[in-house]
Design goal:
homotrimer; 385 residues; alpha+beta; 6-stranded antiparallel β-sheet; 4-stranded parallel β-sheet; 13 helices
Amino acid sequence: MLGLENTSEKAYEILRDYDFDNLVIATICSHTDLQLNYGAKQEGFKTLGIVIRDDPDKKKKFYQQAFPKAIPEYFIEVDSYKDILKPGIQEELIEKNTIIVPHGSFVEYVGADDIIKDVYFPVFGNKRALPWESNRKKERIWLEGAGLSMPKKIKKPEEIDGPAMIKRHGAKGGKDFFVVKSPEEFFERMKNKKYKLKDLDIQEFVMGTRYYPHFFYSPIQKNSPTEIKGYESGKGILQLMSMDRRDETTIDEVQRLGSIRELEEYGIHPTFVVTGNIPIVMRESLLPKLFCMANAVIEKADVLFGGIPGPLCLETVVDENLNFRTFEISARIVAGTNPFVPGSPYSVYIDKDLSTGRRIAQEIKFANNSYQEEKDFNIWKEIIS
Amino acid sequence: MLGLENTSEKAYEILRDYDFDNLVIATICSHTDLQLNYGAKQEGFKTLGIVIRDDPDKKKKFYQQAFPKAIPEYFIEVDSYKDILKPGIQEELIEKNTIIVPHGSFVEYVGADDIIKDVYFPVFGNKRALPWESNRKKERIWLEGAGLSMPKKIKKPEEIDGPAMIKRHGAKGGKDFFVVKSPEEFFERMKNKKYKLKDLDIQEFVMGTRYYPHFFYSPIQKNSPTEIKGYESGKGILQLMSMDRRDETTIDEVQRLGSIRELEEYGIHPTFVVTGNIPIVMRESLLPKLFCMANAVIEKADVLFGGIPGPLCLETVVDENLNFRTFEISARIVAGTNPFVPGSPYSVYIDKDLSTGRRIAQEIKFANNSYQEEKDFNIWKEIIS
Amino acid sequence: MLGLENTSEKAYEILRDYDFDNLVIATICSHTDLQLNYGAKQEGFKTLGIVIRDDPDKKKKFYQQAFPKAIPEYFIEVDSYKDILKPGIQEELIEKNTIIVPHGSFVEYVGADDIIKDVYFPVFGNKRALPWESNRKKERIWLEGAGLSMPKKIKKPEEIDGPAMIKRHGAKGGKDFFVVKSPEEFFERMKNKKYKLKDLDIQEFVMGTRYYPHFFYSPIQKNSPTEIKGYESGKGILQLMSMDRRDETTIDEVQRLGSIRELEEYGIHPTFVVTGNIPIVMRESLLPKLFCMANAVIEKADVLFGGIPGPLCLETVVDENLNFRTFEISARIVAGTNPFVPGSPYSVYIDKDLSTGRRIAQEIKFANNSYQEEKDFNIWKEIIS
């Protein structure tokens, strides 16, 4: 039962009055919206897109025309995504029986705290998970609390004694990540930055290959009559949907020019801004361990903030001893699922043509069918907040 | 209406006499031929392959046997691909009601200028676009004319003041690309080369991640009765089929040995020869801008040389500020579409199992059906030259 | 006819008594087991998984629950995979009419020599190929004997005169691979290692891009009534199923930190441990040559040890002149096929939804149908040993 916050209680009241034969799935037109629209349509839902009015890149035209099978039936135009918090917009969403799926851009533009405090329309998943994935201190409490190994935290720059990754809290898109190898290098790099030390997260840079597995956790389908099967986790089931490697500019093509140190001589510093995603699969013998890790993260989420129904992504590095380090977690759909809209080498073992976007729609449909048959509203409280 | 050249007018006359119930789609056995054959068959066409006689690699055996669903019904054997220009071969193609799809190897082996001057059998797309994509000066006029940002052109080696990419006009497969970082390095590298300065194109090397989006532009389907939908562009529609990253030997694995500068100490210089393609998707928030860019390129092509019906690929770099630089364009099917023969994470939003090869066959089929119903030959003039 | 060894003769006697309406396909729960289970089920077989008892990563739970369409019907629990050699386990497998598919982990854990000497249950493929692919000297005799170009062998460290790759015989997962550029560097790196010189394989490090094409060779389907077509090779047909690039920690992300030489200053040395696989396609004009190479390898295998029915993978580098070097071969299913469980850009030209795992099941099914119709046991001897 996720709804302990006031806005969630209000969302449940609102949801009770929805026309359950005409639910609409919505999100902001960005990030994974095409996938979510397409997945919702595969499951028979209509969709709604929230889009910026008068965009120089003609975003509305793009979402209205570019991909026929991923066009929302409805649009709401806003001047700023923050406008979603305004009662006028919220009422408009509610009037259309909308359930919102929060993705990375949604969380970034609207803000995790404001979503919890002010959003009272029904949100898919547990919105209280959002601050835990966007604040690095909370994230570390959660992941290490679940027994996961993370890159070692370095308390102060003076303690840097090998490759270290510097991240700014809440840095958008990795623009303010950088790597240093000594305290001297750290202070050198900080000269031109206006950051405060307290806003920085310094951690060991773990050598290895990066894997971003995309899980889905359903708290409602373990003992369901349709018997959708999966890895048993807490009261629900855990599924692996797909896996990607993030592609980051400029770091991921930096070797076409020279080593980082060489480029520094030219005053060029690599950045870690995500620009895309490459499909990948992991050595099969590592998957059982990965499921243990995801399972522990889900159980810890239950204790800390009431659970994480829906998608989650562990952002991992595999080192030369085949040990995992988890450097981040996303408790919502990630853009790394976008290569797998037609299905993935993992989801094919679960269902045909199964993306994370479609899986979310299946979960909503499953809850809806169950509610309409058994009239027990509690099932909604498991997946909506 | 593409057919302003004499050879195109002749092609139209020839096409008028074709047996439209038995059109054959053909190309040279290389590059994207498997995809084109398979796509043509998916749409009900027979296919023809032009293949080199007596090849040490047994190319004909390969195309005849390796992939059952991509075997041409007909073969024409030649001693050299240039033989396609001979009237005997042209008549043989015409006798079989053939429409040729020019791909990268076709253009490279036969030559853009000779295709325009001497080929009078029907060619899919606008053959007058070919010199515009293969000559770097024309390419720059086209792309910058469309408002696209390109890597800065450096007029003379003395003006190199940072990483610069040196390309030879018409260099085949990237063998003669190299990177220098100063005038001194440029002249050092030129010592052993026999190139003339005027044959070289020197441009800024843009740090970033490379994305090769594959578009398809249909000038004939906007107001069609079947209402195939897409992003409105000029009088037609624009579709994104797929996206790849080129894999280039030796540059794309150079880091397994050392930095470029370190390797130079051993007399090893990286090359940029394309050997394959890796599937990729782009951050969704960048796609609307990308469609604006492709749209502008199509509109400019209309003005400069009568348009580019069919496939086009923008070869882009995304920098750390998420700005695009377009360093090249291909106005024909690219090999980067080959990972997506079974469909792509983008084409799934348009149609099931949709590759660029199949899309080309659909376009020919659409024109053919329309022509057979309405007897207006002009529709062929929109997509054939 | 593969069965010249005593254990193979025994396997044939055992197979004669199998209940051919209830064949079971089995392997060790690791490597490509999910794919093999799924592929077997696609073709109507039941499956069996051999799994370690009481594993900290809960492997049995993973294989029983994680992927509903890839769960074995039967499990055999062992304390060590070597236990497969024990008559008790062998009898258990035989009782269930089991055909085992040996994959990389199977060969690694049980051992090629012990499989030949002690395993008398029916094994898919020719088990006598296994020592030829796992011993570097035999591998070189085989591949060079087939006319393939390999990285030059360097007889002693003193002869290193450029980039050289050092591999330890039978090194597991690439942990003990390293690159040196001179004799001095070699001896420096060897200081801390406990290897003997005779256990090492020193070869030229070939600059280029790596491609791992996955072939399937069927000795039984060329003249079959169902006319499954393919590239004619010896008495059978050769098919290309898919292609990947191996992803190796830490070498494949090393550039995110610095060049190898720079990292050595910190005492960090890259490793070549396989952690995953990335899908890739090769420039089409290189494929005919690749088929010639695979064909030659198959013909040489016939001469050397009776042939290689089933999957094989050539591990190649393409250099700047578009020449291939083959640095290894796998004569069994490789993990690089795992990105292609739903099918690949190559297998789509053969059959829908065709993975290597499914292709193996098809081969067993084809032999079984043929045997049940014609009662000629020899067909089993072509694909079982």
